[in-house]
Amino acid sequence: MAGRARRLTAVATPGDVFAAVIIAAAQAGGSYAIASHHGHAISPAGYVLLVAGPAALLGRRRFPARRAARLPVLRAIAAE
Fold this sequence. Notes:
The chain is mostly helical. It has one domain. Helices cover 61% and strands 0% of the residues. It is built from four helices and no strands. Helix 1 runs antiparallel to helix 2. The N terminus is likely disordered.
């Protein structure tokens, strides 16, 4: 591989993990409560999507916004 080797210099801190777990629990638990109150069920894929957002928070120190802004999808979202 040409170029410099990348090193993992920033990892998720315990505070990042705690925040991600609390947010995931609130999203999944709240969605379950609301769905069951209305007599509906959330599919397993729905729970995966609910947890994917908080899980992405764990990578925010490794891939900060200035690097993530290079992604076309994020550029399109930021342009709006």
